[in-house]
Amino acid sequence: MPSYELEYPKQPFSTVNRYNNRASYSLQQIHQIINTTHFVNVSFTDPTSPFPVTIPMIGQMGSFTRPSADTGDVLDLYLHGYISSRLLNTSRSSSNNNTDSNGGDQEKEKEEGLAITVSATHVDGLVLSLTPNSHSYNYRSAVLFGRAVPVTDPAERLWAMELITNGVVPDRWRQSRLPPTAGEQASTGVLRVAVAAGSAKIRSGMPSDDRHDLDDAELRARVWTGVVPAWSHFGEPLPAPDNRVAALPEYLGGFVRDSNEVAREKALEQAAKTMRPKKEES
Amino acid sequence: MPSYELEYPKQPFSTVNRYNNRASYSLQQIHQIINTTHFVNVSFTDPTSPFPVTIPMIGQMGSFTRPSADTGDVLDLYLHGYISSRLLNTSRSSSNNNTDSNGGDQEKEKEEGLAITVSATHVDGLVLSLTPNSHSYNYRSAVLFGRAVPVTDPAERLWAMELITNGVVPDRWRQSRLPPTAGEQASTGVLRVAVAAGSAKIRSGMPSDDRHDLDDAELRARVWTGVVPAWSHFGEPLPAPDNRVAALPEYLGGFVRDSNEVAREKALEQAAKTMRPKKEES
């Protein structure tokens, strides 16, 4: 862990304006949110359409050149997605276009890659207040802005696949059939995102109501207020018809138990946190 | 419900190309995914930045002019978000710019609004196969493309707030302090999105492995394969310090029980569905 907490620079596109008392620019907090959501949403501009492209992908923060780096260090985002070919192709053509139009340093332009916005959100609870307009969620939301390039180095691709696989289920990489075949690796899209900026936005605590409503005894006797905690829960693993391992391995059973307990505790912890002083508007 | 299943038109920006055997254009399926996720991701182009803006917002499909419309009917998307002012302002200025530059029909241009992409995703399970490269998720993911405008009619704003509030907890609107004050309504941002196109992508079933791996008895004796089901779970509601309702109301207790059971059953149902014939590549 770094000896002091690193923060992303505030850029015009990354600065939280509304409810800025909920904002954080801490690498540690932002990377933690990215690493613990099941998926991230990747958005980028499609020059042929007025609508941005948005694709859910699996991602994990890491450093290939310094694999022992901590979550709070400067890291790249590695992405693996279901329809990555479209993103990869756009990335390649975007890099080529930059090179063609600018006529600049070809290697540098290629490194620039596709401008993407990456979003990850945990919903920690439903916040139910007296007035419907103060209803809210407890949430931890992160957004990263960066440039995505396809990873071409075979060693880095293999390392990234291990990082991403173990980010879903710890130690699963070592427990599966290794190494991937050349054909499998060739058909697997991996992107490295150099992060330019990022921010997190976090709402925690109980509902906040106006004094006017809190002074209304009849209203308070009628309307239940509080937080319904929420988290992502795993059920009992279901073996495939082709599975031949009789007992569920402990690395997997333990992962399910631990994940559920950690997720539950986090939702309760976020609900119990001291309310922010600023009045909720929605 | 319509007498036949409506589908969104396939546009170049909305057509699923990769794993297109997982695609659906059914209004019913797409709207169902949007309505049952806790939040949607709203992305749009920021003319001052290379990176699209992405904001998590609460959304619900509905029809103000025909409130009894079914989930499978032609509907608008109503959005309410935490930092909606930024989106609303961009939407207004985008409409104005269009009007100024085109000099066309002012009302028509205003109706066009801000081009947004809306994404909603359920993760139904982790799919663990023999080779790491065939690992996947069971998921139901939807994307809508449309034009967003601020809702200015007070009656429609109130109706949309009720739609959105009851989309989070059924009947909560009627159970809270009504009506909202003029000040509350003025500070609440509501957007109506006219949907231009949409698509869903769904992966269900057990892992799919290569014949080569399935013929390897030693490998199958060693690597557990199957699905770890996943769903969003609600914990026991936590009353606020200011709460004065002694017992948890049944509409809320019943909602928590029913939601958990429906979400669990859906994850198990998706895992049990027949595997798609196409081989998994990732």
UniProtKB/TrEMBL annotation, chains A, B:
Q: Where is this region: Disordered?
A: 89-111
What is the protein's species of origin? Answer: Pestalotiopsis fici (strain W106-1 / CGMCC3.15140)
- Low complexity bias: where? 89-104
Listed SUPFAM superfamilies:
FMN-binding split barrel
Which InterPro entries does the entry link to? Pyridox_Oxase-rel (IPR024747), Split_barrel_FMN-bd (IPR012349)
Q: What is the protein name for this chain?
A: Flavin-nucleotide-binding protein
